[in-house]
Amino acid sequence: MTEIPEHLRKRAEEARQKAAGATGADKPADAAPSEATASGGEAAEGRIPVHLLDRSRAAANQPAPDADPAPAGGGAPAPSSGPDGHNQRLLTVVKSGSIQDAKSVPQDKVHVWPHLLVAEFLAALAVTLFLLAFSIFVNAPLLDLANFNQTPNPSKAPWYFLGLQEMLTMFHPMVAGVTIPGIGLILLAMAPYIDKNPSKAPEDRKFAISLMTVHLMFWAVLVMIGSFFRGPGFNFIFPWNSGLFFEL
Amino acid sequence: MVDSNGSKPTGQALAERVQGSQAWGSIFRPGSIFRKGYSDSPRNRSYVIMNSVLYHLHPVKVKRHAVKVSYTLCLGGLSFFLFIHLTVTGIFLMFFYRPTAAPAWNDILTLQTSVGFGLLVRNMHRWAAHLMVLSVFLHMARVFYHGAYKPPREFNWVIGVMLLQLTLLLSFTGYLLPWDQLALWAVTVGTNMMGFTPVFGPQVRFVLLGGVEIGTDTLLRWYVLHVLMLPFVTVIFMAIHFWRVRKDGGISGPL
């Protein structure tokens, strides 16, 4: 896409607005001179200066002496064909619209430096500071050396898999651990090909948004239950009664 | 040179001399702000991007709404930043870690007690990993709610779903490495589930564990996956992801 410098874009926009205002205001005034000229008053002719139009029309009506029908003949032109002894003719007027029409609509753009890079830098800095502060005060867990003979109760997967582990309590492992997440991921990846609705406006996408929100919430609730509401034997507990059985 | 009679301050003269040298000129491209200094002008703002390696990531200009933090919440960029953060802290951890069953746990303990900043760096690596899973997930939700996966960005969404899975795998493979009770049994639960894959479940489990049950072979296998193979694949997918963002016309428009 063509990038148009901002000051030029603004100038063009102003000019366009001015022109739009001018044509609106000048319509009646414009109609009068075009009627005054003998021809039907086409819009194209309205832009040609009147004296040039008159001159060319006069030249067209006046049969040239020693009429030479072949223009490529190169015969000596009549020296007195035009006013003041000039023999130039206005061949055509190319309207500015047809050669200067910009195909791309100028977009409102800003420089990446500093507008985007400063924001990115600040975000990165904030996250680094947060991680540093959090890591100073909260230690990563390191339990006892791995021991195959001592199964902790409960044994939990990492938190993002606890939704799956929660479904293990309801379904056969092949369904809970493979089929449901597999189908879920495939459907997720195919979302753009399933959702044919071209609109991005939330009011046009009520079904898609509801469906996604229900699934995200469903997943979040399962992870929450698996994380905080499952105790020894993976039985349902309340963390405020039985305590937390959760390691990050 | 010309300023032997003290017409210019020596600092400025030195700077000019360094910036005029062949070595300096060979490092910084013509037009780089490090060659000719920076003063704020539209031309120099363009040069900052155009004449630096950042040009691989960002165009010179973006749509005005694309810099609104309230639209993106910086989630995609932060996911990438956390990946870099995890790479840096992870390389530090690699210096003090051997991926074999009993030494692995001892190495972590030694790292925490005897290595300067060892505990802090390990903490940061762990929390950044959890944060990255979260930020990638939220980034996906943000993109969905903005309808940003719609044409022409369909394929980039598919790449994004793959990156989400790679993030989960990276986090999960790292989970085993401390070789403590938490690691062992979390991975036992996870791999038992994968063993229920239809048709070739036992084979999948065997390949993942490097044997019929979790042991030192599993540790080596997951270590290589965690520090080399999965990051390598992730970097490739991220490169395609970022490239497509630009090729598809920058980030999606306002709602």
Percent of residues of chain A in beta strands? under 5%
CATH class of the largest domain in chain B, please?
Mainly Alpha
CATH topology of the largest domain in chain A: Helix Hairpins
Mean of residue pLDDT values of chain B: 91
- Count of individual domains of chain B: 2
Q: What is the CATH homologous superfamily assignment of the largest domain in chain B?
A: Cytochrome Bc1 Complex, Chain C
- Structural class by helix and strand composition of chain A: mainly alpha
Q: N-to-C SSE series of chain B?
A: HHHHEHHHHHHHH
Q: Helical residue percent of chain B?
A: 55-70%
Give the helices and strands of chain A as they follow along the chain.
Answer: HHHHEHHHHHH
Shape descriptor of chain A reads elongated
Note the topology.
The complex is a heterodimer of chains A (248) and B (255).
Chain A: H1 6-36, H2 43-46, H3 50-61, H4 96-100, E1 109-111, H5 112-137, H6 162-168, H7 173-189, H8 191-194, H9 206-228, H10 239-242
Helix pairs in contact in A: 6-7, 6-9
Chain B: H1 10-20, H2 22-27, H3 33-36, H4 42-50, E1 61-63, H5 69-72, H6 75-94, H7 101-114, H8 118-145, H9 154-176, H10 181-194, H11 201-209, H12 216-247
Helix pairs in contact in B: 6-8, 7-8, 8-9, 9-10, 9-12
Please supply descriptive tags for the structure shown above.
heterodimer, A: 248 residues, mainly alpha, Helix Hairpins, 3 domains, 10 helices, B: 255 residues, Cytochrome Bc1 Complex, Chain C, 2 domains, 12 helices
Question: Mind explaining what this structure looks like?
Answer:
The complex is a heterodimer of chains A (248) and B (255). By secondary structure, chain A is mainly alpha-helical. Helix content of chain A is 54%, strand content 1%. Chain A folds into 3 domains: 6-63 and 78-100, no CATH class; 110-139; 144-242, Helix Hairpins (Orthogonal Bundle). Chain A has helices spanning 6-36, 43-46, 50-61, 96-100, 112-137, 162-168, 173-189, 191-194, 206-228, 239-242; one strand at residues 109-111. Chain A is elongated. The two termini of chain A are 47 Å apart. Chain B folds into 2 domains: 15-56, no CATH class; 66-247, Cytochrome Bc1 Complex, Chain C, CATH 1.20.810. Chain B is globular and about 75 Å long. The N and C termini of chain B lie far apart (61 Å). At the A-B interface, strand 1, helix 5, helix 6, helix 7 and helix 8 of A face helix 4, strand 1, helix 6, helix 7 and helix 8 of B.
